[in-house]
Amino acid sequence: MTDPTADTTPGSWQPTSTAGTTAATGDPRAALESLRAEIGKAVVGQDPAVTGLVVALLCRGHVLLEGVPGVAKTLLVRSLAASLELDTKRVQFTPDLMPADVTGSLVYDTRNAEFSFQPGPVFTNLMLADEINRTPPKTQSSLLEAMEERQVTVDGTPRPLPEPFLVAATQNPVEYEGTYPLPEAQLDRFLLKLTVPLPSRQDEIGVLTRHAAGFDPRDLDAAGIRPVATAADIEAARAAVAKTTVSPDIAAYVVDVCRATRESPSLALGVSPRGATALLATARAWAWLTGRDYVIPDDVKALALPTLRHRVKLRPEAEMEGVTADSVITAVLAQVPVPR
What we know:
Residues 62-192 form the ATPase AAA-3 domain. Pfam families: AAA_3, AAA_lid_2. It is a single chain. The protein has 340 residues and is α/β, with parallel strands linked by helices. It folds into 2 domains: 18-242, 3-Layer(aba) Sandwich (Rossmann fold); 245-340, Magnesium chelatase subunit I, C-Terminal domain (Helicase, Ruva Protein, domain 3, Orthogonal Bundle). Helix content is 41%, strand content 16%. The protein has a 5-stranded parallel sheet. A two-stranded parallel sheet has the order 2-11. Strands 4-5 form a two-stranded antiparallel sheet. Helix 2 packs across helix 11. The longest helix is centred in the last third of the chain and has 17 residues, at 273-289.
């Protein structure tokens, strides 16, 4: 088991001695731990984002990946998909994309003289919504029902989505021409917002070394990435996470952190109760991944930024002063008393 006293930042989750074993062992934690090594065959230096995607799988949540072009956001999701025995589809969001292009539509069958439903790419286990902020709001909103209720309603008939189901969306934070920022209601549907930073100098050297040796990011099979976890492993892991103990003091701590954001003078909008339940869920998943069957305050702190940063709204005057959502949440974590 991982040492409970070890560093608890999301990127510090390290495989235990069982890492590298496949799903055949019947150990869901070992299967999920081996994902890091498998994704590492293609992606260098983005461990926190890898961990965030695994946490989202465990919590039945969705992930918004934000980073400048060229930091391997799309490659990260493609590598995760290749490491899982799950169905996956990719949608490139563009200004002319229509809702039916995502959800599916009724198509007239001339042979039977009736309409039949043609499922869209959302009917999958892992959907990569690439550059989600490049499509208009009506197409963005076509994902709301799918993300929240795990179903799509067409012509009055609800159609359930497969399980597990995860939307991994990407967006570029520096280019705003021809984009449609996601509204707060849709941002709140994402369990985590993960920032994908530029790599360190050493990691960037590693990227170039791999490319010089013949690595092709368009050919993950040649990189040796193979499925190491199945839907059954994910379901077993979710059941184990659900048994992770949350003491009343920890629940109260989560509530106090979220309520403190609502009182911050820098924020026009604080974290809602849905955000509080999300933080509790991600903290439980993180505790289980690090080898514990109980949640400690450090688990809450470790997942507070990715879970809450997109659920708050800065006041215009605070934004002009250079205040960020991350700095406000960090200040709140420093001020709220930690249970002993």
